[in-house]
Amino acid sequence: MALKVAIVGLPNVGKSTLFNALTQTAAAQAANYPFCTIEPNVGDVAVPEPRLDKLATIASSKEIIPARINFVDVAGLVRGASKGEGLGNQFLANIRDCDAIAFVARCFVDDDITHVEGRVDPLADLDVIETELMLADLESLEKRVVNLEKRAKTGDKDAAQTLRLVNAALSELSAGRPARVAKVADDDAKAWRMLQLLTSKPALYVANVDEVSAATGNALSEQVAERARADGAKVVVISAKIESEIAMLDEAERGEFLETLGLEEPGLNRLIHEAYKLLGLQTYFTAGPKESRAWTIPVGATAPQAAGVIHTDFEKGFIRAETIAYDDYVRLNGEAGAREAGKMRAEGKEYVVQDGDVMHFRFNV
After folding, report:
1. Consecutive H or E run containing 160
2. Average confidence (pLDDT) over 326-335
3. What is the pLDDT of residues 84-140, one digit of tens each?
């Protein structure tokens, strides 16, 4: 399933440097002036998954196909973006197309890199961005109210539902809170998504620190962490500059470099995994001589739904899923060993797929 995350922040906070590291390219121009990014850069990135490599070795797979995630480097927002400042309308539209938002906050001091507002204050940066997104949502919703009220009075049930949700969102936004804090019933989830609100999207804070603070963070990143805890959000501490250097190294050099920095893995891996968790996603695998592949599904997906990610015919004609837990697959050295040990299970339509399941689907079209 497609997953698209917007990288959002004020100019010169390290968004494009982070994007370059994610895509291991220099596609985004990282320059020391506002709006060096005009069109959004989109990068398709493999999801780091060590389990997949292990499965491929055991299955003697000819090809390894990881899951993918799209990152969108959105041009720097500025105060007034909701009114069109700094090409704001165009940039806000880019964010609207994404599933989640990674808010990049500048948590480093460097006199050689200009801050658009002349100071380094990550919490103020986050406030500016959130405020502009809320103002854009307010304007969007207020334009819909009159028409929805007219339609609701005629007995239009869909309009009545939408109006109720619009008013719920307006209540939060008018109080200075993002729409994501609104309580939305399961029956309203689809209609809520149709509102396409910027502030209803799941949010992740990225504290971009200096090289020295890559492993431990610093006082500025701790401010962002406290903000995340208060908001019930996640935070990832990253040095975008170091990540861009790591991205250009080969496997052996990368391991040595990480060790010297006191890091167990690149910060980008943590960023990608947190983005997955943010959207309630997990991974299952297929493995064989031809290929080993990772598939992305929502947490709670049933076996037929997981099969449908491969092909809709698999879901329509689902019979059963031959399933092996990842740990059993590795411990018993593959499918044959798992079958002999009685660890291959035949799961039916009601089975809820677990993260790491190795699956083979039986279907009839």
Report:
1. helix 157-174
2. 97
3. 544 445 667 788 889 999 999 999 888 766 565 567 899 998 998 899 899 989 999
Give the list of residues 6+ apart from residue 34 with CB closer than 8 angstroms, or none: 11, 12, 76, 78, 86, 116
Collect all residues with Cβ–Cβ distance below 8 Å to 129 and sequence separation of at least 6: 8, 9, 10, 77, 103
Kindly indicate the confidence band of residue 333, based on its pLDDT and cuts at 50, 70 and 90.
very high
Output the average pLDDT for the chain: 87
Rounded to 5 degrees, what are φ and ψ at 315? -75, -45
The answer to whether residues 59 and 292 touch, using CB atoms and an 8 Å cutoff, is: yes
DSSP 290: S
Q: Which of 233, 212, 210, 209 is nearest to 221 (CA)?
A: 209
DSSP 345-357: EEE-TTPBPPTT-
In whole angstroms, how far apart are CA 192 and each of 45, 122, 221, 238? 29, 30, 33, 33
Q: Is the pTM of this model over 0.85?
A: no
pLDDT of residue 95: 86
Q: What are phi and psi of 53, to 5 degrees?
A: -60, -40
Q: Which residues of 196-218 are buried (b: 16+ CB within 10 A; e: fewer)?
A: ebbbbbbbbbbbbbbeebbbebb
For the chain, the first-to-last Cα distance in angstroms comes to 22
Q: Which residue matches tokens 């309308």?
A: 89
- Rounded to whole angstroms, how far apart are CA atoms 71 and 268? 12
For residue range 43-73, list pLDDT tens digits in order: 888 888 999 999 999 999 999 999 988 888 8
- Looking only at the bridges linking them, the beta strands covering 63-65 and 318-324 are unpaired
Tell me the C-alpha distance between 347 and 338, whole Å. 15
Taking the CA atoms of 240, 242, 248 and 249 in sequence, report the sign of the dihedral they define.
Answer: negative
The DSSP 8-state label assigned to residue 279 in this structure reads T
Element (H, E) at 343: none
- Write out pLDDT tens, residues 8-38: 888 888 888 888 888 774 344 344 433 344 4
